[in-house]
Amino acid sequence: MQPIDRRTFLARSAAAALLTRVGAPASATRVAASREIEPDFNATIDFRYAPRDFQSTICFPDDPAKTVVGKRGDLRYDFPDDKFAAIDQFGTIVEFTLAGMANDSWISQKLEGPGVPIVHTLIDRPSATIELIAFASRSEREGRVDNVLMEIRARSDDVVAAPLVRIRSCRDYRLKPKNGMITEVVRGQSAEPWMICIPLDNQARDSTWFLEEGGFRLTLEHGTASRTRPLRYFFRMPQAGGSATLALADPDALLDETRAWWKQWQPFGADVKISVPSQKGNFLRACARNIQQAREQKDGRLVFQVGPTVYRGLWIV
Predict the structure, then answer these.
(1) Given pLDDT bands bounded at 50, 70 and 90, which one contains residue 315?
(2) Contacts 24+ apart (CB under 8 A), 167-172
(3) Which end of the chain is more exposed for a tag (fewer CB within 10 A), N or C?
């Protein structure tokens, strides 16, 4: 059997879902979903025609804060309310890298799973590698927060490194007075932090803040990274009325909480049961997650809205 193409797969999956919605017997749904299962199916994914640039989402289903993660682990905000805006024309882009040590070289980016939108980005430097782990949290004590955990590992000998954060934006940003080891960035006239930066493994030192062409540059406290013990920094950006509290500044605990939530998440409603194995099932699960992330509550109704665009063509879902 030849590998099924995307158009046929989506059409038959939609048909299976429709059968369930109209009250067809469960056996009919199972038959519709299982006809594509073949023992000799080639599950190898062909990346030859993958786009050069791409974006991922880390938000929850029906989440009004639809944070976008760029290919290099950057966070993208403030998409303009303009139907002619390009796909990457965000008003604010936050980049995470290191000061000095030559230029970044992109290695890879991946999600932890088709149903777990925790994004891992790997960046290479001559003396070290940088892993950026971007994820959303939604604790009852602080609300919705975007999080980026930076882990710096030395390639061979121990290396001294200092994180560099670039905020590319025409908006006004500034630093609040230093709060021990915590660096806080505020936006406009707000007194609440727009971003807090927490060094996890070293003592408090001075950070530097510069206005540069196209935005701002923040260099944080330096530390020493080894091959076996990474140097770690935690960046938190409250969203939709949330507040990043220091009491919840444990990135590992927050990661575990986010993983646990997504592992219990179900891609379909309570009355819809579709089971597709292997890569087809992963693709179906990822599509359902992405659609629910695009969904939002408006005037008491669920609508599909990303930025300024409403996808009315998703009526079949």
Answers:
(1) very low
(2) 167/92, 167/93, 167/94, 167/215, 167/216, 167/217, 167/218, 168/92, 168/93, 168/94, 168/95, 168/214, 168/215, 169/78, 169/91, 169/92, 169/93, 169/215, 169/216, 170/91, 170/215, 171/78, 171/91, 171/92
(3) N
